[in-house]
Amino acid sequence: MPHHIAIPRPPSTLPALIYRIGLALVCLFPHALPAQEAFSHRLLDDVLSAHVNGQGLVDYVQLKANRDALDAYIEQLATVSPQSHPALFPTPPHALAYWINAYNALVLRGVVDAYPVTSVKEIALFNGFFNRQQWNVGGRALTLDQLENEIIRPQFKDPRIHFVLNCGALSCPPLPNRAFDSATLDETLEHAARRFAGNDKYLRIEGEVLFLSKILDWYGQDFRDWFPDQRANPPARHPLVNYFIPLLEGERAQQVQKPHLELAFMPYDWRLNEQPPPPLTPLQP
What we know:
Strand 1 and strand 2 (140-143) form a beta hairpin. This protein is mainly α and 285 residues long. 41% of the residues lie in helices and 7% in strands. The protein is built from twelve helices and five strands.
C-alpha cells in the first residue's frame, strides 16, 4: 500500500528556506517515511484565522506584512496535489477540500503580491488575474480559471462550490476564517449554501422580482444539471428557484414560490474584499 505522507508544518522560528528543504526531502523520498495522516491545511488555517474576520473580509495590510505562513502553504501546493500525490487524498472530500483551499489561497497570494490594489481587476489587466496569471499546483502551471473550470466544476459537479470559492471581490461568497477540512466538508458546504440563500446580498425578493447573485447567472447550468432524483425540480418553476427552496425558511421560502416570479441578476461588486482600516486615534490637544 502507498504511504500517506504528512507535509511538515514549519515552526514559526524556522526560516522559509529550511522549510522548503524539508518539503523537498519529503517529496524526493516519500517511501522512507512511515504511513501518516493525509495532506494538512494547517498553515492556511493559521492564515485565515489570523487575517479574516467574521464577515469574510481580509486584513491585507497585516497579511502582506506577515506572509510567511501563506508563502509556505503556496510552496506546499506547488509540490503536492491530488493529481501528483493521489495517495494523500484517499476520498473525493480530501481532494475537493484541497482544490477549494488552493483556489482561495492563491487568490490571497495574488492580491498580497500586488497589494495595495482596490480590485483584483487591477491585477494583470483584461481579466488576466483569472485566466493568464499561472500558479504552480502539484507541478502543473494552472490559472485560477483552470482550477475552477477544468478541475473543480467538472470533476466534482457540486454547485455548492460556488458558495465557497472566493475571488477576492465584495460580491464573492465570504471567505471563511478557517480552512476547509475533508471530515466536515459536506456539512460546511451545506452551511455555506444556507448562508448564501439567507443573505439579501445574494438573494432577495422585491415585489414580483427575485434578485440573485450574478454568480448564479454565470454558472446557472451547474445548478440545472445537479438535481438528484429525490430533489424536486418541477418545470413550472425556474431550476434556480427549485434549488433554493429547501435552503430557505419561513416567509422567505414562501415568497420564492410565488407564481410568475421574475428573475433578475444583481450587478457584481468587484471592489476588494478588504477590511476597512481602523479609525484614527484623535490627536491630544
